[in-house]
Amino acid sequence: MAAAYLHDLVNLPKGAPDRAQASQLSARRAAGLLPSLGLSPDRIATTCHAIEAHSFSANITPETPEARILRDADRLDALGAVGMMRWFAVSGGLNRPLYDPSDPFAENRAPDDRAFTLDHWPLKLRDLADGMLTATGRSLARGRCALMHDTLAALAAETGATLPDSWRP
Fold first, then answer.
1. Ordered DSSP codes for 133-153
2. What is the number of alpha carbons within 13 Å of residue 94 lying toward its C-beta?
């Protein structure tokens, strides 16, 4: 529970040079707070590992059940209807266009999610379900990815484009 509450204690903006270290910075800050909550040194170590390993950017292997659950839960936040709203809000805040009008689904160019919002789907979001570490995480992620795919297919239909098969989760 402590790792869930404190995993984003240090929240650095997208594009910050030290963004990949945010989970480790959060773990260090949490380690200073957890003794006052009565956690044992072992529980503090377990909690801090879960916080460090939850991050996609940190690329740290989750070694404990708590770390695997927190990583799955954090990635689930990026999926489904709420995940899409977050995805578009972040891109809007970065002034990124929704898509390339001449090639919305990156069929004739390399996807670039720093240039176009939709390109984040094939680069990071589409395959998140496959990387879930728990059965519950995989099940929930597959449903949320299906909803996102359906929304992208509706967008393709509305814009007169065709959603490529490679965009299927």
1. SSHHHHHHHHHHHHHHHHHHH
2. 18
- Report whether 33 contacts 14 (CB < 8 A): no
pLDDT, tens digit, for every residue of 81-134?
A: 999 999 999 999 999 999 999 999 999 999 999 999 999 999 999 999 999 999
CB 66 within 8 A of CB 47: yes
**Three-class DSSP category at 70:** helix
Instruction: Kindly state the tokens that stand for 4.
Output: 């869930």
CA 92 to each of CA 23, 52, 157: distance values in angstroms, whole numbers, following the listed order: 24, 28, 22
DSSP 3-state of 50:
helix
The model's pTM is 0.85
Q: CA–CA separation, 78 vs 161, rounded Å?
A: 25
Neighbours of 109 (CB within 10 A): 13
CA nearest to 12, candidates 2, 1, 23: 23
Question: Which tokens hold the place of 130?
Answer: 């496959």
| 18 φ, ψ (degrees, to nearest 5) | -105, 20
CA dist 27 and 24 (Å) reads: 5
